[in-house]
Amino acid sequence: MTLLTIITHVGIFIFAITGAFKARTYRMDVFGAAVLAFVTAYGGGTVRDLLINIRPYWLSDNIALILVLASTIITFLFRRNFRQFRKIIFFTDAAGIGLFTVAGIEKSLQAGIDNVNAILMGMITATFGGLLADLLCNTVPNLLKRGELYATACAIGGIIYIALKQTAISDNANLLICVLIIVGIRIYSKRKRLMLPDI
Question: Is there a domain that residue 26 lies in?
Answer without folding.
Answer: yes
